[in-house]
Amino acid sequence: MTTETHNPRGDADRPIAKPGILDITPYRPGKSTAEGFEHPVKLSSNENILGCSPLAKAAFVAAAERLNLYPDGRSNALREAVAKYYDLDPERLVFGDGTDEILHLISQVYLEPGDNIVQGQYGFGAYAIGARACGGEVRFAPEPQLRIDVDEVLKCVDARTRLVFITNPANPTGTWISSAELRRLHAGLPPSVMLVVDAAYAEFNTDPAFDDGLELARAADNVIVTHTFSKLHGLAALRVGWAYCSAEAADAIDRIRPPFNTSIAGQEAAIAALGDEVFQAQSLTLVEKWRPWLTQQLGGLGLEVTPSAANYVMARFPATPGQTSGEAEAFLASRGYLVRNVANYGLPYHLRITIGLEEHNRAVVDLLAEFLGRAG
Ligand SMILES: Cc1ncc(COP(=O)(O)O)c(C=O)c1O
Questions:
Q1: How far apart (Å, rounded) are the C-alpha atoms in residues 204 and 44?
Q2: Quick check: CB of 236 below 6 Å from ligand 1?
Q3: Which of 321, 9, 347, 358 lies closest to 173 in space, CA to CA?
């Protein structure tokens, strides 16, 4: 056996993270604690305020009988269920420990150091983390109206671009691009660039001009669409996400995917959730009822609210000391309501608020009226 004596990272006397890793800003999840409240109302992570399907819960409980067993590494039953529900080729599906894992795997498959990814200026933070971990450069396409601008995205693409990430509807803005714009974006990309459409919130957008990208992914080799069971289905704790792509891309991702990345409980709860259209409809109805209400009420308080197609809204606060987004966030937390400060997305004046139950939405509006000195 030969011993490698050359140390390309200097003469450090301890293991050193590879270049770039310690420059990565870690993902910051929505807050989950508020001082003085054992159970604050959490409107900071776009979770499903209704919980999950009772059928999914029963499947989860039943899975407790098999905690000693490894799960089916190919998620075959879930694969069949998703393929049937969405009319997809089961062989072109990939399952992940949440969409988050799949997004990381995509970067690992396609990026070499010096390659780049393009995403929207306010895009979801996970793409950049995964890309930077692979030595990729991250390019942010301006979003002049807080919304993906296809031309700006295309302008960022060059010979070293391998991946373009679009969240549709977007997080944290809630804005979206139409099917026609998505197709125009795809048509403007060279075939060597993979377009990744993150459809985590797609179920909340029922506008006829919108689609989740699956139609495009069925037809084109350079499109990956990701979906999650965390939002509409309310299974965030169980970490189940999936991607649809070409057979070649699915094969590549599967080669590096940890073999047992989705649990028995996750797979079975997800199958049950997919079959519970009553719960899905309840979740969508709640969002469709309270999203316009919250938008209008917050607007009535003088806040600028970005029209949203997801299960949250984003509101802009004044820069005036005493009325800023940071102070509003702290005020709401002091009353037991957690919302998301999105300054780390480059939006220092905004807060993102997940749609809650009626009493939560009303309370948020009343508390913000009090905070802004507009209480009636
Ligand atoms: C845009 C977007 N993509 C992906 C995810 C991650 O989803 P998952 O829970 O499936 O990992 C989230 C979660 O908040 C998200 O907002």
A1: 17
A2: yes
A3: 347
